[in-house]
Amino acid sequence: MRQSKLFTKTRNTAPKDAVSASHKYLIQGGFADMLMAGVYTYLPLGYRVIKNISNIIREEMDKTGAQEMLMPALQPKGIWDETGRWESLEEIMYQFKDRSGKDAGLGATHEEVIYDIVRRNINSYKDLPFAIYQIQNKFRNELRAKGGLMRGREFMMKDLYSFHISQEDLDEYYNEMINVYKRVYERCGLEAKVVEASGGVFTKKYSHEFQIIAEAGEDDIIYCTKCDFAQNTEIAKSKAGDACPKCGENLKQGKSIEAGNIFQFGDQYAKDMNGYASNKDGEKKPIFMASYGIGISRLVATIVEIYNDDKGIIWPESVAPFKAHLISLNKNEEAEVIYDKLVKAGVDVLYDDRDSSAGEKFSDADLLGIPYRLVISKKTGDQIEVKKRNEENSEILSIDEVMGLIQK
């Protein structure tokens, strides 16, 4: 991609209402654009990050045997009445009447929709267990739609639902998904804590949240630095300084960002929506369900909160919009040759071919945070000055050495 052709441009100043690093840099760098509070357009740079994260998630979900599908965002009131959640989610769900006077809503979540499909298609234990997932925009009428992509009224989410013939089978898959989620976050460059929490407005039962320690977070958690004990303060009986109930280490308290959550519904939906299947003995048994969510657009913001400095973003290579940022300082002819070689080698590269000053190009490179900066100038001759975004020092390398470095 030639930067002169890139649709969006960087801004010299941050948004006036930006209170977090992610809000500031994602807008200033041209990754996202605010239409109204809590509603954002993912611009080309931001959407490339979205796609990279989505691909990681898809790979990990597919490894478990889960199948991807896509459900409608527009939903009838009737299926929500079966569970009583049309009323209980009234404060956060967008609800309205269509032109025929029928009640409908925009999907804040999809348990009712998927369970309606399952109860009409699953009749026997032979069809269980199975898991289905989607990547789709959700809609929630958030009262505090501030902080950029951290808390949106429309946001991109991966939601997976698993179905089982017994609680024991559900427990086994649920525990497996905890490890799958941890791999997703690790591949995105994040260390997630598995935190016990209440079910909130979505279920009466407990849940597990995946929290990232960050000052910009809206949650408070009690956690142990020695073992895996962690609880949201909303349910925690311990406090900072207390001995960990698992290992005895002193507990800590910290701000954190909820980057995902999982819920067990057990047989709740079977009872509410009449979802049953026959077991090996021909007996009618409830179809158990659990739900697993990752806020993808929030994950973009979370990564920026962890990886930034006073100049801009520092993207982990796994999710960066480009792998390399090629910068020409009045050496476009030589840079064109390098650019062609990188493209032919399959390197995802942003080429700054603009007629701009060196200072502006370097400033934009720091703001955009692409992992490798490759500079072609009179000083480099027929070689390339290479600097990693997260390092201070640079080195002069040949094109072959650059290829080996970037492609390893």
Automatic annotation (TrEMBL):
It is found in: Cytoplasm. The lineage of its organism: Bacteria, Candidatus Buchananiibacteriota. It is an enzyme of class 6 (ligase). GO terms for biological process: prolyl-tRNA aminoacylation. Keywords: Aminoacyl-tRNA synthetase, ATP-binding, Cytoplasm, Ligase, Nucleotide-binding, Protein biosynthesis. It comes from Candidatus Buchananbacteria bacterium CG10_big_fil_rev_8_21_14_0_10_33_19. GO terms for molecular function: ATP binding; proline-tRNA ligase activity. Transmembrane segments: none annotated. PROSITE patterns: AA_TRNA_LIGASE_II. Homodimer. This is Proline--tRNA ligase. GO terms for cellular component: cytosol. Residues 38-316 form the Aminoacyl-transfer RNA synthetases class-II family profile domain. Its EC number is 6.1.1.15. It catalyses: tRNA(Pro) + L-proline + ATP = L-prolyl-tRNA(Pro) + AMP + diphosphate.
